[in-house]
Design goal:
Blueprint: E1 2-4, E2 11-14, E3 22-27, E4 33-38, E5 42-47, E6 53-58, E7 64-69, E8 75-80, E9 84-89, E10 95-100, E11 106-111, E12 117-122, E13 134-138, E14 143-144
Antiparallel strand pairs: 1-2, 3-4, 4-5, 5-6, 7-8, 8-9, 9-10, 11-12, 12-13, 13-14
Length: about 140
Amino acid sequence: MQLWEVASGREVRTMQGHTDWVWGVAFSPDGRLLASGSDDQTVRLWEVASGQLLRTLEGHTNCVNSVVFSSDGRLLASGSDDQTVRLWEVGTGAQRQVLAGHKTDVRAIAWSPEGSIVFSRVGVSAQSSEDGAVHLWHVASGRSV
């Protein structure tokens, strides 16, 4: 995975660790961390300044398509082809919750500004009734709203 400086167009560094395609990346709100999700079924957290791999988050059983930090930077959400959204503690790497109930791949995720709701969008699938609908999850309870 490569990090580029936008103003100059020069490559700043290469971050190595994933063993397959990277599909999703996100900067933490303070810009110090970068999260990446991959076909290797992992989420990785990187220190932007050094490019150092801080931790690998494991638990998904299929490709990780999307990653996003909460607005306070304490939680990270990841969406996967395993039909789940997982919430992780950024500071420890601990898996906090698994939000399950989708019938197809989770393609995109977002946090509400105050961090109480996670939105997840699924892909279109001929095998299910999913049509790219958005699901809303209450973070405290882990329930779909």
